[in-house]
Design a protein that fits this description.
globular; Surface antigen; alpha+beta; 5 helices; six-stranded antiparallel β-sheet; signal; 2 domains; about 160 residues
Amino acid sequence: MTSSISRAFTRLIATAVLGGLSLGGSAIAATAAPAPAPTTTATSTSLGPQSRADDAIAWFAARNGSTAYQGYCEKAVENAYGKTGVYASAIANWNAAVRRGAAHRGDLNPPKGALVFWNISQYGHVGLATGDGYFWATSVNGRIGKAKLPYFSNYLGWAQPNF
């Protein structure tokens, strides 16, 4: 008896939800809440490289003044682009850019989002160009900061990130 009551209840609910419920000769239409309007979320990959550059610049700006990446400039630029562990050092990244023909040696006018490189240690140094003659990097006055190019000595040039 319990299972027949359960089946009858299930049919009653299904009827009410799908087609309306008849009570005492009048039908009560089942109404559902209107579906929410679809939302779209823009992502860097759908908007192209300039949006990726803007996102990377925003990553640095959000960490302005931080010392958390001191000595880890390559990790910082990779993290700004949502990556990690691509290159062991800034100089390894620069050398890869040279090998693939993507290095712009000595050019002090990098576009927004380009990586800018220096030969200031055995590991080199890398920052992120803002496209207006400035760049974000670690080690700007000992912390993440924004400075005017070339800032450090031994500027190598720039290359677009390949990650």
